[in-house]
Amino acid sequence: MKIGLMYEIEMPKPWHEGREAEKFKEVLEQIQFADQMGFSHVFAVEHHGLEELSHCSSPELVFAAASQRTQRIRFGHGAILLPQPYNHPVRVAERIATLDILSGGRLDVGFARSVTLTEMGGFGIDPNDTRPMMEEALEVIPQLMATDRFPGYRGKYFTIGENRNVLPKPLQKPHPPLWMACSSPESFYIAADHGLGVLSFNIAQAETLAERIHNYRRMIQTPQKPVVARVNNQIAVFLMTLCGERNDETVEMAGEGMHWYMGVQRGQSPYWMNIFERQRHEFFANVESYKYAAVRAPEALLFGVDVDEKTAQEAMRPKNLLNMGLLCAGNPDTCVKVLEKFEALGVDLMLCFMEMGRVPHEKTMESIRLFGKYVIPHFDKRAANSSAAGASA
């Protein structure tokens, strides 16, 4: 199992003049340090207008800059929003190829359809259209990268003229590894049918993912609607993570960051969630492909679930979040124990989300350092031993 980082570029208020510029500088410093400390990947999301939660509207520009400061780490654009008002398929293929060239062939690419009314409303997108829009785009983007003369496409949502050569072409042939952002069980199966890797972005316990991972591994052996030139049979899992020398202090700090994040997700703050997402549950409940999201994913602790205040407060205590495996925090030994639960399921890549809420830059850098010194070598050694045992069997 490999270890990577994940970013949304959070910006909790209050802000001061120049804070955004500082934040982007910090992110680049963290990515550069993660490259030195042996992290295999760094993923970043694409979001629009989600004030405080994510100021990451152009991950490809962040990675273009980071690619010139690093040597080995792979960049995961995860995930590009595919409904056309966000991104036209031709522009997606062009940007993927350009970034793959600039990074020296170190790019992975994930796709998604979008799950906030804030973003959909900003681009005039009907939630009923996001999945079929994504399906159309998925049909053609790999072809645009892999063929010199694209034959043309005419669908419901977009048209591409005949005999077009979309340029440049990616360095990785026929195209970089392709993934899909997944939350519901159904989305795991769609990814398998298309031959795509899974980016599991829910806050979930390892045990919750067991059946989905098993079914995905079975189904991707014979994809029913492959869109890729090369199947990407991999599963990456998002997990809120913070490592520090002082175990209890680090758990508390990570817990506070997770509380902030989950508060934003539940619409408690900031103001845009209350304005645009207030009717989310009722609205999404009437859109077939979003019914799962209407309750904020049952396994995602307390998202859209009615519980009494005492139960909620007890469940949200940092140590309880840690014990349930919803949070990976503490000293290196504690972090290893949490991550081993996901390794046992056959997860290929853990995406450690360390920029939770108001966790300061220096604590994130310390976390990256400790992971590089203790946690990553632990899993590298286990992988090497496993490979050696398999070779001798």
General description of the model:
This protein has one domain: TIM Barrel (Alpha-Beta Barrel). Helices cover 46% and strands 14% of the residues. The protein has helices at 19-36, 59-67, 89-102, 117-123, 130-146, 185-194, 206-219, 247-265, 271-276, 280-284, 291-294, 309-315, 318-323, 332-344, 361-392, and strands spanning 2-7, 41-44, 74-81, 107-112, 153-154, 159-160, 178-182, 197-200, 235-243, 327-330, 349-353. The chain has an 8-stranded parallel barrel, surrounded by 7 helices. Strands 5-6 form a two-stranded antiparallel ribbon. Strand 8, helix 7 (206-219) and strand 9 form a beta-alpha-beta unit. Helix 2 runs parallel beside helix 3 (89-102), helix 3 packs across helix 5 and helix 6 (185-194) packs parallel to helix 7. The protein starts with a strand and ends with a helix. Residues 268-276 and 296-305 have low confidence and may be disordered.
CATH topology: TIM Barrel
CATH architecture: Alpha-Beta Barrel
What gross morphology would you assign? globular
Number of strands: 11
Poorly predicted regions are: 268-276, 296-305
Strand order of the largest sheet: 1-2-3-4-7-8-9-11
CATH class category name: Alpha Beta
H/E element order: EHEHEHEHHEEEHEHEHHHHHHEHEH
Structural class: alpha/beta
Q: What percentage of the residues does DSSP assign to strands (E)?
A: 5-15%
User: Percentage of helical residues?
Assistant: 40-55%
How many domain units?
Answer: 1
Distance from N terminus to C terminus (CA atoms, Å) equals 21 Å
- What is the overall number of helices? 15
The CATH superfamily is Luciferase-like domain
Mean pLDDT, as a whole number?
90
Largest beta-sheet characterization? 8 strands, parallel, barrel
Rg on CA atoms, Å: 20 Å
